[in-house]
Amino acid sequence: xxxxxxxxxxxxxxxxxxxxxxxxxxxxxxxxxxxxxxxxxxxxxxxxxxxxxxxxxxxxxxxxxxxxxxxxxxxxxxxxxxxxxxxxxxxxxxxxxxxxxxxxxxxxxxxxxxxxxxxxxxxxxxxxxxxxxxxxxxxxxxxxxxxxxxxxxxxxxxxxxxxxxxxxxxxxxxxxxxxxxxxxxxxxxxxxxxxxxxxxxxxxxxxxxxxxxxxxxxxxxxxxxxxxxxxxxxxxxxxxxxxxxxxxxxxxxxxxxxxxxxxxxxxxxxx
Length: 271
Known about the structure:
This protein is an alpha+beta fold. It has helices at 49-68, 73-88, 140-143, 186-189, 204-214, 219-233; strands at 2-11, 21-28, 37-45, 94-102, 107-113, 118-124, 147-153, 169-174, 180-184, 242-251. Helix 1 runs antiparallel to helix 2 (73-88). It is globular. It contains six helices and ten strands; from the N terminus they run βββααβββαβββαααβ.
């Protein structure tokens, strides 16, 4: 068994009351063997403020409903694109990230309709598929030593709502202990650009790599720290809505088949 944690941290654009980003955590339905799963939905509506929130809510609600019905992620993303395209006549876009766990196969599925990358860190053996090129010498000591590997899932992906036949980019991975996944909206990736003359002061990949190598599997802490770094880069006045979704996978000492509680904690300040 694995101990799986989701962490979410988000903030709205400075001087704007509503965030144009929407995040949902949805339970997937059980199959005949009572195996279900979880899906994190991250949607960034075009623009900011109320209109962007209406767009992101529209997309996220549609995705959540389909996930609850057991629809696969690729079909969920295509249906969301169709609905937004016809509802807004191709005039409004939204980015979508789906991060799903399927417990029946112990797999992680990441679907992107977002030009931004999703970072996935995991521990691999040098003799694995992502190891050194064939022919490279590996000592017996190194053969059994796991090393941190950071993958940037950055294949070209098209936003929802612009084209009629838009499809998601879908990647699937086996769940392994020590895995870290970080997805975020463009407010994170552009943080600090206004004050640094086009430089990129916030290196998200380096941040995730540091957490992976340190063995930090506190998803909420990772999400909070990344959001704080982005806000600091914007001098505590976010220039866009910012959202971070983090997934971590840790080993569990609970025997298989033992009932284990699921927990969720949410903190928000009313305005």
